[in-house]
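Hey, can you fold this one?
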Amino acid sequence: NVLKRSKNTPCTMSLIPQTQIPLRGIVVVAHCTLGGDQLVFRYPPVLRPKVSDETISATFGKKAGEKSGTDLKVVTDPPTNPALPPVVVSTPHYTPYTMPSVMLCSILSPKLPLCDKIFELVVDDFRFVGRPTLLAQADEKSKLDQDDDEKLNPISSTTPLAQSKDSSNSPTTTSSSPLSASQMSLPMPADQKQNMKSLNSSSSSVGSHGSATRQGSSQQIPVSTTNNTKIKDEVTMLNIAIVTGKTIDEATAKMCRRVVTQLCQALRHEENRCGYVNTEVFKMISIREKWLMAYQKSKSESDRPDHTTLTYDLIQGSSLATLMKDIFHGIKEEGSVHTAINNWISVSLTVNDIDSHPLRPIRPFQTLLILDPPQCLASLPPDASPALKRFIEVCKPTKSFRELQTELGMPLTQLYRLAAHLVCWKKARVIDTLTKNNVYILNPSPKADGFYLPFLSQKFERNFPVKISDILPRFSFPKKLGEHVQSLPTSLQRDFVDIVIWMLRQDLLVQQQTYVYLMVPSGGSALDDGSADENEEKWPLTPRPLQRHELRYIEQLNNNTKEFALFKSLCPYFRGYHHLTEIAWRENISKEELAKVIQMFKSVLVLVNHPEETIEEEHHYSQRQ
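Sure. Predicted structure:
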């Protein structure tokens, strides 16, 4: 299916689909010197079988409804006189994303002061995040557009215009309802407008949105001649807008702005290098013109090409359209995408907040689980660090970062940076090193849904000599891996570790950890109530010192042994935030010593086994206690 991700495009996908942001589409809008504002590409395609009246009117000069193709929404208005029947009014049923192209391209084509900076527009429940970019050799044309703006394109006083800010990187946000095609469009000089009229009157085909008709092959750029001076139709402004839901968090909004900025800057560089944007834009405009002509000439509704057919033709005929499609699927399903524009510029886009850092740091006893090692290596750019390649090749779930440090001869800090880089791009996950004492259970909320599980079952059976339905019940109850191996047939014991690694990569298993809670009666006073301080709110992994009433109670258990001294030093960790492996590593003691202390003072300790949760979930749970 061409409307899905291209197999030949160097983009990366994870095995399990994920939704990172409420992404609804990608829109590409361009402004041409002769053709004006153009909606070049919109993905996913609009799911309506007919072309809107506005597009028909703007393209073929017909009155709205003369050759109507718009889906109508019937609205019943209550009559002013109760004795009269209700008034039925038919209005076009559009959403901000599916509105006619002549309207959508106009609201996404801002004026010159709003170009080369983030431009955000909120219409109803849709948010458009773009960065209108002036292409090379477009400055003089834009100045002419600005000078003749008032004469050629008067703006309605009710049109909500976005206001620019002092910083070029600060977003401009506008909230409005769908606008008419004449609003918020880049104007044309008077002589160019006259030239376009002459072209329209003498050409044999018609532009898609009132644009100048292009004769000859689809890759030829139209030229108008006035007073022996040739005026070539060029793309002067390009805007790629990501369409999301109205309400998104600030971190996601920031990453959406970064994505469109990276993409527009890369396309501008490629335009300066070889004219890539002009070539691809006019390819798609020509395809849209042919599609509209076929729609207009069709005699029956069954023969009319719909918007899905247009999107199919655009993807087949333009590498830029294919690029936008792959970016949409990569961001929506994975949260990131790696691709090469025109097979020249490598671009890595992600909506993951690369500036955020987890509160739970990486530990030497942990390791990195590469989700798909062959694909991860294949996705690396040609200039990737040799250290990163070597790290991916050597990294295994059974080798801790401490062991990798010895094998690779790299400091732990460098290994942590490489691991964090792969985690940020959703290529890997930090887990505890696989040992026979690890306890795993079935993930209660796996990313794989019911439709994806049959595919996983088939893939599992191709890799292992057993059915996944025979393995999953074994993890219904918490049990150490060593105990699992002892209960397995001899033929499966050798493959069991590989089976566990495969299930961890598919997010079917989660590890259970043991947490300790100190149970001390409350002191009863405001100073001894054990309430959390400000430091605990900011850094819940920081051990909280004992309160005075806790110290008094613990001193009653003093038996003048070294185990009591160790128990007293470990009490700040018994808040439910640190599991046993973390406590042993922090205090540089063995798990046997820790287990002995817990056994000796079990009367005031409570052990809880549950999967390792996020800091926020653990902190919220502790506050409820």
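The chain has 24 helices and 20 strands. Let me know if you want another pass with a different chain boundary.
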